[in-house]
Amino acid sequence: MKRHTVPEPGSRKQMARARRKHTERVLFAVVFTAVELWAVVAAVVLLEDDGVLAVAASVVLSAALIAVWDTWQSVFASGRALRVPASDEPAAEEVGPDQPMTLVRL
Predict the structure, then answer these.
(1) How far apart are the C-alpha atoms of 45 and 71, rounded to whole Å?
(2) pTM across the whole model
(3) Does 34 map to a domain?
(4) Is 58 inside a domain boundary?
(5) How far is CA 12 from CA 16, 32, 76, 104, in A?
(6) Are 6 and 83 in contact (CB under 8 A)?
(7) From CA 77, how far away is CA 72, in angstroms rounded?
């Protein structure tokens, strides 16, 4: 998996380029998802076989859906990296061993 570098928050040029790349990733993910879903539906509807071919088709179709899920996880991770600037300093609100942990929905 290719590692994407996070742009410097102060650099307008790097942030604009990173946003453009993220927009491209979202567009490609939408097209990829549409094509994969169309292929899965076509394979399920048109496949008129049982036995080994049906098992092989189910494995391939599940791999296609996993690829779609992984694509969207990557898109969400890159979008999250653009919204939340990374810092080397630990956050002031980190939970200590004596404090209760609260869940935050992302």
Answers:
(1) 25
(2) 0.63
(3) yes
(4) yes
(5) 6, 30, 22, 30
(6) no
(7) 8
The answer to whether the beta carbons of residues 102 and 63 sit under 8 Å apart is: no
pLDDT in tens, 49-92: 788 888 888 899 999 999 999 999 999 988 888 887 655 444 54
- C-alpha to C-alpha distance for 36 and 64, rounded to whole angstroms: 7
The reply to whether 92 falls in a domain is no
Tally of structural domains, the chain: 1
Residues in the chain: 106
Rounded to whole angstroms, the Cα distance separating 74 from 100 reads: 31
Asked if residue 78 lies in contact with residue 25, where contact means CB atoms within 8 angstroms, the answer is yes
Q: Cβ(38)–Cβ(46) under 8 Å? A: no
Select from 19, 106, 36 the least CA-distant residue to 71: 36
Supply the pLDDT for residue 2.
58
Kindly tell me if the per-residue pLDDT of 3 is higher than 80: no
Tokens encoding 26: 């979202």
Closest CA to 64 of 44, 39, 82: 39
